[in-house]
Target: Folate-biopterin transporter 2
Amino acid sequence: MVEEENIEAPIEGLEEEDEPQGGIFEQFWAPIGWFKMLAMEMHWSFVFGVVVVYGISQGLGGALARVGTDYYMKDVQQVQPSEAQIYTGITWIPWIVKPLWGILTDVLPIFGYRRRPYFILAGVLGMVSMLLISLHGKLHIVFALMALTAGSAGVAIADVTVDACVAQNSISHPSLAADIQSLCALSSSIGNLVGFFISGIFVHLIGPKGVFGLLTIPAALVFSVGILLAEFHIPNFCYRQVKQMFLDAGRSMWTTLKLPDVWRPCLYMYLSLAVSLNVHEGLFYWYTDSKGGPHFSQETVGYISSVGSLGALLGALLYQNVLKNHPFRDLLFWTQLLYGLSGMMDLILVLRLNLKFAIPDYFFVVIDEGVSGMINRLKWMPLLVLSSKLCPSGIEGTFFALLMSIDNIGLLSSSWGGGFLLHMLKVTRTTFDNLWLAILIRNILRVSPLCLLFLIPRGDPNSTILPIERVSSTGEKEYLENESIELVSLVNNVDPR
Model:
């Protein structure tokens, strides 16, 4: 409570100055005062970096890239749904190696800076790859995949780097840690909603290649973060220690992963994602088909996706205000069950049963997308909390990136498994006779992780899952206190005002 009073003090001061302007002005100036307070406390360049990376690059840019890639694979490359599913999975590979980016930003400064060069690298990768796709008439699929993967790598590197900056500022400004996380979540949610809302409009107006051309703007802004970010220069860094620091980090992570309290939940998280086969491309091709499908326009596809983002935001609010203190097993049981049942709405839609009850396709899909987005977020939130509790002291950031990589491997397995299923059932660009069967198999597999809930600890989010004594008793070095590898190894790097 003391921290909250300290945080609100600057905002209250600003509101008092604007009192003569009336209540509506107070509501308008409060968020501006909040941003101003954060910029004053932690330097404006950090706030700018968070908004650019989370809000514009990942949020808005990620939404544009998803819809643009769907239409690029379908209309420009003209590949089958199963192939598009596989190719999309390939572009996720840079997110699987997030721990590598994390360790690099922690232990390998470039020209005396730990963060700025990686933002610059991320921006260059994004700009070059997006320009290549947008300006070339029709890239060979191999080169198109290379460009898309390079663009994804740029976003992933920027994500890991800003994560390090967020953790660094959260430690140096503990009273503002909650505000920093609110800034990250707010930026991402608003960017995602706006991105999906306008994605279909831009695909319709300038085509998918034109959308990739627009994505050079977020990449250029990430580049500008690397130029503008205030960061101390580290002269005469000893690069001889980098190899040992890499080895120490790897040894620490492997020691932690061998603990039953850690590998069992990790196994559950991977399997629960991998077996929930992703058949998104099959549904997308069917959505836009003029014969057997509802033939949604580009604008409609974007609007539908924005509803899913809104549902995810509502799910996060529901978890925060109602469900955050429930035991992990109980909450995951119900969310996983609802996740499987919600998939039946796709089955109803593909079988056209909604029309028998006089429910229009668009209205039904909007409900389906909103409900699915909310349930998926409710399923994901406790896994994020659980992951944070599995991270040992001293290597929290790098180990959390490792856990997120395990989850990304699960998503990759799900995407490739879904592509294989679509191929086996002969779901093509124009043939959707067996799409209902693919959805039914997916829905059955979605509830199968219920049999693996014994891998999840019985505790609730307020309990300790990974005691320090348990980790230290492994006989390895006492790395939790002595290791030099940390996500925020240079706390004193926080730039002064």
